[in-house]
Design brief:
12 helices; globular
Amino acid sequence: MTKDDFWQGVRGGFPIVVSASPFGALFGALAVDYGFSVFDAVFMSMTVYAGASQMVGIELFGNKVQPWLIVLSIFAVNFRHILYSASITRHIGHFSAMQKVFTFFLLVDPQYAETEKRAERGEPVTFAWYLGFAMIIYIPWQFMTFLGAFFGQMIGDPRAIGLDVLLPIYFMSLVLGFRTRDNWLPVVAVSSLASVAAMHVVGSPWHVSIGAMAGILLAACLPLPKQRQEPVTLENEV
């Protein structure tokens, strides 16, 4: 582990902290509003550590839904993390088994996006860089959850502020970061339409996984991008 890679990761993750911190505070405030204690809210952030599914979990908890259905719903929202894990595996084959444990636990949306972009740029995905990028997001997330849970009761209904709009904006910025990839537009369009349709037919949170699967199926059917081939020379043949 090199210090340079670690601090490079910290610097790279800092802008994410600025944009995600209000969302962490919103989760803490909503969790208390739905009946969680401050400890419960922070503990959920520390163990589940997935903003969207945390929101789904506390909402279902507040509506007195059966525990097994809450777990199943969180799994549906977090299904995309299975795809994330499969995607970055080719970049972290040199990690030790224990390093991979931390890698997959800390694999949230911005972590996945930046790991893929770093690999595309030809830069090495080291564990030091990965950990630095992850910690600058994970630790403030817990702190902001605590602040939101502790002070949220002082502002009344936290949903009245309208901070929940941060979530779709946040995800949209991640998706747009891959807009230069081949077949990006048709895959995103089909995934979005399928998700909206599933939202009205099946309901939340299943529309997230259904939209993702629709995009995956289309991507699998589309032709692969043509790879640039080097001209064959006599030297290459020999």
